Amino acid sequence: MTKPPLIIHLAAPRGFCAGVDRAIKIVEMALEKWGAPVYVRHEIVHNKYVVDDLRAKGAVFVEELDDCPPDRPVIFSAHGVPKSVPLEAARRQMLFVDATCPLVSKVHIEAARHHEAGLQMIMIGHEGHPETIGTMGQLPEGEVLLVETVEDVARVAVRDPARLAFVTQTTLSVDDTAEIVAALQARFPAIVGPHKEDICYATTNRQEAVKVMAPMADAMLVVGAPNSSNSKRLVEVGARAGCRYAQLVQRATDIDWRALEGIRSLGITAGASAPEVLVNEVIDAFRERFEVTVKPVVTAEENVEFKVPRVLRETA
Ligand code: SF4
Fold first, then answer.
1. Are residues 181 and 239 in the same domain?
2. pLDDT tens readout for residues 223-232
3. Which of 131, 220, 241, 283 pairs as cysteine with 267 (C-beta 3.0–4.6 A)?
4. How much is the CA Rg of the chain, to the nearest whole Å?
5. Is the distance from CB of 51 to CB of 60 less than 8 angstroms?
6. Do 133 and 80 fall within a single domain?
7. In a domain, 31, yes or no
8. Where is the active site (predicted)?
9. What pLDDT is attached to residue 27?
């Protein structure tokens, strides 16, 4: 039986960012250096495949420090942690490695600097996301006010409208955030913003690629996890850019073949925590049913790399 033709527009950049790459390397190097088990507080990055792979190598994933024995190393996830967490680990004299992405740490430093200058902080982010919890947890309780929407900006009650600054989560929608920032600046003209955008290069680049790719495709799949903020944003960006069907899939088994009946072209991208092996798995699943031609849609080149912490670079 001849297979129907299908053009796959493959977004680039897609998948792993430098922060995710570094966080995974940190766990692997810690396992090499100290042996298993190595404890990891929270999913190191939001991807089940990555977490399962590290678990098989000897990593143990826990939610709190209390779940870690005092005599084993513990790693903090790429999303960042409230200040209280490393302080508590140090108090307990635990061996810990912080895998917080340097671009998230940069936001932490920004927030602390504004606080020291006497400004109250507003964070644009998603309530309950570990990155938001980590960033808000850099300052004393009540010093960071969270806004998620333009409507929240109208409601937020601040101490002094003349002494405010804002930071953002790194994985937000570039367009939604621009609207929220504009609303903040309209209501609080004196508000101080980041020197440079807090939304990171990887989030921005992946969204840009989707904006170009989505209008070319009858449908679009984002390989990523349901708890991955940047992956969910890519689905929204694709739908907004005019793609009639934009869907998140963790891997090939999630593909809804009925919904894709009759398509002639498909866009594929992957969130910053999704490994390329899962993108290939999805493409291979289409090859079984279609005569596939892959066309890359390249909108940027990335060459960002972050060093792992010194403790892991030193030989034992
Ligand atoms: S998405 Fe951006 S901020 Fe988050 S880990 Fe990757 S590079 Fe760092």
1. no
2. 999 999 999 9
3. 220
4. 21
5. no
6. no
7. yes
8. 131
9. 98
Whether pTM exceeds 0.90: yes
Q: Atom of ligand 1 at shortest distance to CA of 170?
A: 3
Could you tell me if 220 and 151 lie in one domain? no
Q: Is the bond preceding 215 in cis, omega lying within 30 degrees of 0?
A: no
Just list the catalytic residues: 131
Please tell me the distance between residue 40's alpha carbon and the centre of ligand 1 in angstroms. Answer: 18
247 vs 17, 236, 238, 252, CA distance in Å? 21, 9, 9, 12
Q: Ligand 1 centroid to 72 CA: how many Å?
A: 27
On whether residue 107 sits in a domain, the answer given is: yes
pLDDT at 185: 97
Q: Which residue range is the domain that position 80 belongs to?
A: 18-101
- Regarding whether 59 and 22 lie in a shared domain, the answer is yes
CATH number where 163 lies: 3.40.1010.20
| Residue 195 scores a pLDDT above 80 | no
Encode 107-120: b = buried (16+ Cβ within 10 Å), e = exposed.
bbebbeebbeeebb
CA-CA distance, 111 to 115, in Å (whole number)? 6
**pLDDT tens per residue across span 113-142:** 999 999 999 999 999 999 999 999 999 998
- 115 and 79 share a domain? no
Name the domain count of the chain.
3
Length of the chain: 316
Q: Give every CB contact of residue 205 below 8 A, 6+ residues apart in sequence.
A: 13, 299, 300, 302
Only one residue has tokens 């940069």, namely 106
**Nearest by Cα to 7 from 297, 255, 295, 296:** 295
End residue of a domain, out of 160, 187, 214: 187
Residue 193 belongs to a domain: no
With respect to residue 213, please indicate whether it lies within any of the assigned structural domains: yes
Looking at the structure, tell me whether residues 76 and 118 fall in a common domain. no
Centroid of ligand 1 to alpha carbon of 241 (angstroms): 23
